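Entry:
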Amino acid sequence: MGTDASIADRLSDDMRQAMRAKDKVRLGAIRRARAAIKNAEIENGAALDEAEAEKVLRKLARQHEESIEQFSAGGRDELVAKEREELAAIEVYLPAQMEESEIETVVGEVIAAEGATGPGDMGMVMKAAMARLGGAADGGTVNAVARRLLG
């Protein structure tokens, strides 16, 4: 399937494929992703654009990452494996994340452009950095890099 198809279209097509393949874990992850997008559309009162749908899927991915941490801490390896499979099924629909070194370069440029001098300028730096990076970088990683560079 080409990259010009919308996330919703890709989810629908992949859901049918998962049904045919009897891939229960992937099917469940795709169904939850579609439901989350549908709920966001209802809440929004209109269809989501690609960036908004991507944001919903990022939130789902973050929830899976948090579950993996919790289950790992609790020694629930079977649940960790299931969460990792579901996370992988969702990440297919998200753009690749930038490496930390690339994020550091962008944040460094933002700090120089904004004239930031210390931790007090964190909000200004984060706003400008996230605007430049868009969905290509996780906010937590950007925050950690900015904190380190400003600290």
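Residues 50-73 form the longest helix (24 residues).
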